[in-house]
Amino acid sequence: MNDVSNKIKAPAIGLIVVGALNFALGLITVLSGLVRLTGIIPGDDIPTDEAERLGYFVGMFGSYGVAFIGLIVAPFIIYGATQMLGGKSYKFAKTSAILAIIPFISCCFIIGIPFGIWALMILSKPEVKAFFSGEGNFQNQYPPMPPRF
Description:
Layout: H1 2-38, H2 50-86, H3 90-101, H4 109-123, H5 126-133
Helix pairs in contact: 1-2, 1-3, 1-4, 2-3, 3-4
């Protein structure tokens, strides 16, 4: 049991860090967008050319949209990583690893890709699956011995 929990500890902590960074960056970006919309702090001048104005608004709302989605998804990444750390829910652990990898969901996907892939590799091992399901001895998962006649 100790060997398996040591295997899942590092990627789970990495996913927690990715979720926390994702939440912090998403919150800062969304709050700065709200401040910009209120007009408290004067922002950039909106371009007068139609094509430039369209690009400006698409870029602005696209970046704020990704930050908002990241703000919503970050608690799921953190929750799944804590479930992975405790060996409680295999589905939530795998879901959080996948969410950390997806670019348009996570602001920190560049950091999330290595930790998410690492977590998925660890979660695919049979001894880790047995650890989550609560079956048997987790240190030595050997195939059964053949019968002797």
